[in-house]
């Protein structure tokens, strides 16, 4: 049996609070770099090959976007599970659910609808319309334009498969929050069974309606750490920084080599090998980043400008897709004569998108803080 959580949780350790804010922002920026990948095929799976000539730029893109940076969703789910479980006892679960409907559900619906309006506007001009078509991120491929959808598909595009496809994270997170009492029972009473099942769903990418399969493992891990009062700042005795950093970078490098050098068609053993390397990279990357980059966290969080930026993590999250996808296509179409344009676009455009997102957020928070609060679920209202 585990000791019950106190009715009022103790305040977060100051450095832990800084780490959570740091990784919430950094993970969002890394998310842009994953979604800014501009090689073919565009759609990245753990076992996606590369149909492009090997070069320093193409190698670096795949190494980062489909390797090194892939720990960002696991760490966000773990943070979310930890914080939600840690705040248990502050109010009844029903009240917590109502709060999450406001802070997760409403932003999901609002941003999905807002992006549909923006997408309709983009389709009214030939240049941006072509960018929408070229991006090929519609779930109703090859139909890329809203005018090609039925009414039912438009509703589906709003509620289930939004244009800002990264919103799946909010939807899944909301479902986990709703199911928290049952998840809590499973994690505390049968942790071996829970984590075995969740681990298999994660490893084999098993799709589950509305909740996905990826988040259950890491959201549950965050819950377990909080509910068991586990130490999350001090590395466990088995953690070896160089070993896990080597696994992180080495698995990404080997998977990148396979993506370029193995001739199609891909076999099942090769696909499973790449999937296994991908999963090793996610786990080792999350551990190496969380426990091994404390010096970077301290330096960044000591900077006033960086602490200010952490208030706009959510704006970066909701604005970067499909913005980065459409602007990528425009850059590649109209600047294709520029040497190394694919690499330059990949490296520079995410920073520009992040800057634009922060700028929009800062102006909106200043001009209309009430609207800003609704659109962000109350996030980032503090000014430092």
Automatic annotation (TrEMBL):
Domain Acyltransferase: 26-356
Top-level division of the source organism's lineage: Bacteria
Keywords for this protein: Acyltransferase, Cell membrane, Membrane, Transferase, Transmembrane, Transmembrane helix
InterPro entries linked to this entry: Acyl_transf_3_dom
Compartments, as annotated in UniProt: Cell membrane
Membrane topology: Multi-pass membrane protein
Family, as annotated: Belongs to the acyltransferase 3 family.
Protein name: Acyltransferase
Top-level taxonomy: Bacteria, Pseudomonadati, Bacteroidota, Cytophagia, Cytophagales
């Amino acid at each position: 049996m585990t000791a019950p959580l106190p009715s009022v949780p103790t305040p977060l350790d100051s450095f832990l609070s800084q780490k959570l804010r740091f990784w919430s922002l950094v993970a969002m920026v890394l998310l842009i770099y994953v979604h800014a990948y501009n090689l073919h095929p565009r759609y990245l799976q753990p076992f996606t090959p590369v149909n492009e000539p090997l070069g320093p730029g193409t190698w670096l893109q795949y190494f980062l976007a489909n390797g090194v940076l892939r720990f960002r969703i696991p760490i966000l789910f773990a943070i979310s599970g930890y914080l939600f479980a840690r705040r248990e006892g502050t109010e009844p679960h029903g009240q917590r659910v109502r709060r999450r409907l406001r802070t997760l559900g409403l932003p999901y619906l609002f941003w999905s609808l807002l992006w549909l309006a923006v997408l309709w506007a983009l389709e009214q001009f030939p240049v941006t319309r072509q960018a929408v078509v070229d991006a090929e991120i519609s779930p109703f491929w090859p139909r890329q334009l809203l005018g090609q959808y039925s009414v039912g598909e438009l509703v589906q595009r709003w509620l289930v498969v939004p244009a800002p496809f990264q919103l799946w994270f909010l939807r899944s997170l909301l479902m986990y929050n709703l199911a928290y009492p049952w998840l809590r029972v499973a994690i505390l009473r049968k942790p071996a069974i829970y984590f075995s099942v969740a681990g298999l769903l994660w490893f084999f990418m098993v799709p589950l309606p509305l909740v996905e399969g990826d988040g259950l493992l890491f959201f549950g891990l965050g819950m377990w750490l909080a509910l068991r009062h586990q130490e999350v700042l001090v590395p466990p005795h088995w953690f070896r920084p160089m070993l896990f950093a080597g696994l992180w970078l080495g698995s990404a490098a080997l998977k990148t080599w396979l993506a370029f050098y193995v001739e199609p068609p891909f076999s099942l053993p090769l696909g499973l090998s790449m999937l296994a390397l991908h999963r090793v990279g996610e786990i080792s990357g999350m551990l190496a980043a969380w426990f091994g980059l404390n010096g970077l966290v301290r330096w960044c969080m000591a900077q006033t400008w960086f602490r200010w930026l952490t208030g706009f993590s959510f704006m970066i999250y909701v604005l970067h897709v499909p913005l980065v996808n459409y602007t990528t296509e425009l850059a590649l179409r109209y600047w294709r004569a520029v040497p190394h344009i694919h690499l330059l676009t990949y490296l520079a455009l995410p920073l520009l998108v992040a800057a634009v997102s922060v700028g929009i957020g800062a102006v909106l928070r200043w001009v209309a803080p009430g609207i800003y609060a609704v659109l962000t679920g109350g996030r980032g209202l503090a000014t430092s």
